[in-house]
Every structure is written in structure tokens, then in C-alpha cells.
Amino acid sequence: MSLPLKVIPLGGLGEIGQNMMVIEYRQDIVVIDAGLLFPGNDMPGVELGIPDTTYLEKNRDRVKAILITHGHEDHIGALSFLLSKIDAPVYSSRLTHGLISAKLKQASLIRNASLHVVEPQEKFFAGIFEVEFFRVCHSIPDSMGIAIRTPYGTIIHTGDFKIDHTPADGIPFDFAHLSQLTRDGALLLCSDSTYAEVEGYTGSEKLVGEALDNAIKKASGRIIIVTFASLIARVQQIINSAGRHNRKISLVGRSMNANIKMALRMGYVKDTENVIVSIKESRNLPLNKVIYIATGSQGEPTAAIT
């Protein structure tokens, strides 16, 4: 017998990357996230991994929406590929929308894309499903979880999150609203469980900022910091420290430059002391006055540092 409500993971379970989940009720489908997998050393010759979207391609007319939790590559990196196969509206937060738009422009898909910005607690329907986003804490601003109301009950998808009472952007996890969403119970919780088997808890972004500031303060020469281009809040912490310690910052790598310039335009990053300079300008500065921020923290073959 065919079950009317289905939850089908197409990637992201038991692995870091390729996040994609399908929720289906009769003739309606919603997709949560569309991410890349960065291959490890055990995958020689593989540049990137993407979820198998054959099922969605066969049922493309039933896909009512693509819901994106946040702007990390393992959640939006395969969206260009997916939208080249199916035509469905994409819903995300404002910053995530900006990151997605940049990707689709690069892939020449932006003209035909249907992109929608949603705010936390905003409700809308995608076919039979009532969808509502809620605020969570993560290492990139504007991260959200999703509540999907189905005829059988509410499904909660947390996206990536951590419990941080002093986040870098000052916006905490909205536990109060999450409790309201589940006051009548939840049919299913799909929760981030990265490192859940490790004892202890994840430190606050405030502690990361303090550690970065201490390292920058003590450094006597040129500083190179390697991180993900999507870690917007982390870059803001480095900008703040650079201003305190009379250093300039130069961004290295196409994605790093594109993301931070976009975040500056949208107000998610602030450079009030004008510490960001070009690579060319940085070459004329003393070594102890420069910080380079580059991509490639996991040794990705296409990243700037490698």
C-alpha cells in the first residue's frame, strides 16, 4: 500500500554535505536544501558531490517549493544543478537569498529563477503544506529551521544549529517560537546531530572572536586566516580585530570577495574603519599591518589557499 506522507532523504544523512530532503504528500512535494559534498582523500578524482535528483526530475511537476535553511555550500551548493533540471520557487532568508542569487547569476540561471525572501514566523503554503521558518543560531547569519504542517502533523527540520547565547550577530536561537510551533506536539523532528556523540558542548562564537583577537594581537608579522567564504560572522570578527590592532585586511579568492562584498552591501558585514583593502594595496603595506583572509580551510583543490 502506498503511504500518503513520505520523508525521503536524498543526501546529508551519515555524511557532511549533499544535504537534501524530500517531503511528499500525495501529489505535493517540497524539497529542503540542495547542498554539495566536498570529497575527502578517499575520493580521488572527484571535485564535488551532488545529491541524486533522479526522483525529483521524474516528479518535477509535483515539486511545489524548495526551502533553504541557510547559505553554506553543503546546503545551497547544488541548487544551480537542481534548478537546471526542475522549475520550482525557492524560499530562504535575506542573506541566503543573496548568496543564492550570486550563484545563479554565475550559472546564468537567475533570469528564470523564482526566488522569495521569507522572514522568521512568516507563513505560506506550498501545495498542501503550510510552511513556517524559525530563527536558529549557526556560524552564518540568517540561519533558520523549518516547520512544515502536514495533514498528519507537524514536521520540524532544524537545519544546522548550535545553542549559542552569545552569537556573533547578537541574534539568539528563537526557542520561544519553536515551543509555540510544537505546543500541540510534533509528528517528526529532523535535527542536526553533527558531533552529537562527542562529550561536552560547542563553544560560543564570542569565544572564537576572543581567540582570534588574541592571536592577531600577538602576531608580529603577516597573518593569513583560512576559512569558508560563507562564514560571514567570522569575517566580521576578523574585521573588528583588525581595526583594534591597526591592521588592514585583504580578501583572497573569488568566492570570498563576492560573498563579503555582497554582505557589506546588505549590511550583514560592517567595515566602519575601512580596514578592507585590495590585494594590490596590501602589497604596499608592512607585513605586520596586513591580514589575508582566504578560502581553503579543508584543502579544497579549487580554493584560493591551495
Automatic annotation (TrEMBL):
Transmembrane segments: none annotated. SMART domains: Lactamase_B. Residues 17-212 form the Metallo-beta-lactamase domain. InterPro entries: Metallo-B-lactamas, RibonucZ/Hydroxyglut_hydro, RNase_J_b_CASP. Pfam families: Lactamase_B, RNase_J_b_CASP. This is Metallo-beta-lactamase domain-containing protein. It comes from marine metagenome. The lineage of its organism: unclassified sequences, metagenomes, ecological metagenomes.
